Structure formats: structure tokens, C-alpha cells
């Protein structure tokens, strides 16, 4: 569904992605792991065309979306993105946040958009929060609302960028449960995460990024139990010492 080939991205003199190759088959979950600053978030932003790449190419469903002739807005309508900072509009209710893109971008009539949004909110345990404003929700509820907003546009691909990073530890589980459910439904996802145990459980492939390079990739059991690269082994040792990988 998503393919990156020799993708390179720089900010000034800093090379953030170095000739990245990535293949994400449909109905699979790819977990991006690595230290902060390794390029995970930038990779996701390039996949959604929020950042313009300097070299290489990206395909979505077989279409080269980095072709200058590609309609970036049309591409983004097929991709859902959830950031760690929620990014809900504070002056809108949860329902208004969720229905904004379907109504304004996709032209869905208000009644239909609200009906579908309420169904999604109910499914993710937020049915009673539809008329609340974001500041009346817990962090976990806000992040679930952000996921509902991304799902409301019926994306082909869902990108999740450290979606538990801003949450208190007791709220992490409820958000990760949502991702588990989405995997069970066949949603294609790429997620950047520091939750190693979760990545090992839910991912079909794990990519370890280091210095903007996909240094190692493979099935979770291969990457976590028998990493081939010394940098991967060093990173995972630090994670184990910090008690974040069981």
C-alpha cells in the first residue's frame, strides 16, 4: 500500500532521512522504533506529504504521490494522521472536531457525517462525550477522539506518531487497546512508538531507524530477539535497562 524508495530529507545542512526504503503491505502494521531524533516522525510527515522530500519517491496504492503532478490534498484525504499532541480544536465539541473534515473536505452531508461520527465515538468508548469540549476530556479520551477524527475520513492508511508520548502511564493502555482493535479490523498502519512491548505484540514488521537510516528491519521476534546490527542491540539494551521491554 505504501512504498518509499531512496527517500532523502534534509533540514538545512542536517540530513534527517538518508535513502530510506520502506514497503508497507495492505492490512499490516509497521512499527518504527529508534531514539528521539532518528527520523521516525519526519518519515511519517513525508509519507503524508506534510514535508517535501529532497530525493527519492513515495507510492500510495501504486500511485507515485511525490510526482509534482500529484494532487497533495487528494492524497492526504486517503491518509489519516494522529499526532502525540492531539491537535483537537478547543472551541469545537468532540463531534464537531470529528465531522469537520468529512463535511468540509469530503462533502459529506452534516446529518450523515454526524451519524457516522457518533457510531465511531461509541465504538471507541466516547459516545457520551460527543457534545463535550476537549478540555473536559482526559488525555486518553482526547487521544481516542483524535483517532476517531482520523478514522472519520475512512483512510486507506493510518499514520500514528508517538500517540502515547504525552499520556500519563495509566492512560496509555486505553489508547493502545484502540490500535489493537484497528489491527484486528485490518487497518493498514505505520506507527512510530517508544512502546517496545506493544510494537513486538502488534507489528507485522519492525524498522529500527538510526541517524535517518533504516538500519534493521524484520519480524518483531527477529528484531527484538536476534538483532543483527550492533546499534540495534545497543538501543534495545538501553530499553531493557529502562524496564520498557519485557
UniProtKB/TrEMBL annotation:
InterPro entries for this protein: AAA+_ATPase, ABC_ATPase_HisP-typ, ABC_transporter-like_ATP-bd, ABC_transporter-like_CS, MetN_ABC_transporter-like, P-loop_NTPase
Domain of life: Bacteria
Family matches, as PROSITE patterns: ABC_TRANSPORTER_1, ABC_TRANSPORTER_2
Presence of keyword Protein biosynthesis: no
Similarity field: Belongs to the ABC transporter superfamily.
Membrane topology qualifier: Peripheral membrane protein
Source organism of the structure: Streptomyces xanthii
GO terms for cellular component: plasma membrane
Source lineage: Bacteria, Bacillati, Actinomycetota, Actinomycetes, Kitasatosporales
Chief localization: membrane
Location of this chain's protein in the cell: Cell membrane
Protein name according to UniProt: Amino acid ABC transporter ATP-binding protein
Entry keyword Magnesium: no
The entry's keywords: Amino-acid transport, ATP-binding, Cell membrane, Membrane, Nucleotide-binding, Transport
Domain ABC transporter span(s) in chain numbering: 2-236
One Pfam family here: ABC_tran
Amino acid at each position: 500500500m505504501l512504498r518509499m524508495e531512496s527517500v532523502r530529507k534534509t533540514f538545512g545542512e542536517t540530513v534527517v532521512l538518508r535513502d530510506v526504503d520502506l514497503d508497507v503491505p495492505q492490512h499490516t502494521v509497521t512499527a518504527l522504533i529508534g531514539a528521539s531524533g532518528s527520523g521516525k516522525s519526519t518519515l511519517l510527515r513525508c509519507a503524508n506529504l506534510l514535508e517535501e522530500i529532497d530525493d527519492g519517491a513515495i507510492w500510495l496504492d501504486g500511485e507515485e504521490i511525490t510526482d509534482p503532478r500529484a494532487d497533495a490534498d487528494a492524497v492526504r484525504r486517503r491518509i489519516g494522521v494522529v499526532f502525540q499532541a492531539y491537535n483537537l480544536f478547543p472551541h469545537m465539541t468532540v463531534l464537531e472536531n470529528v465531522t469537520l473534515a468529512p463535511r468540509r473536505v469530503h462533502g459529506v452531508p452534516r446529518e450523515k457525517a454526524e451519524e457516522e461520527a457518533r457510531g465511531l465515538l461509541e465504538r471507541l468508548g466516547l459516545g457520551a462525550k460527543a457534545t463535550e469540549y476537549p478540555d473536559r476530556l482526559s488525555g486518553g479520551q482526547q487521544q481516542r477522539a483524535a483517532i476517531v477524527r482520523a478514522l472519520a475520513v475512512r483512510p486507506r492508511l493510518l499514520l500514528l506518531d508517538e500517540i502515547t508520548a504525552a499520556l500519563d502511564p495509566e492512560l496509555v493502555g486505553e489508547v493502545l487497546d484502540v490500535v489493537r482493535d484497528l489491527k484486528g479490523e485490518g487497518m493498514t498502519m505505520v506507527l512510530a512508538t517508544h512502546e517496545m512491548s506493544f510494537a513486538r505484540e502488534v507489528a507485522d514488521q519492525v524498522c529500527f531507524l538510526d541517524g535517518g537510516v533504516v538500519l534493521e528491519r524484520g519480524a518483531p521476534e527477529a528484531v527484538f530477539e536476534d538483532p543483527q546490527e550492533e546499534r540495534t542491540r545497543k538501543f534495545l539494551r538501553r530499553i531493557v535497562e529502562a524496564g520498557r521491554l519485557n
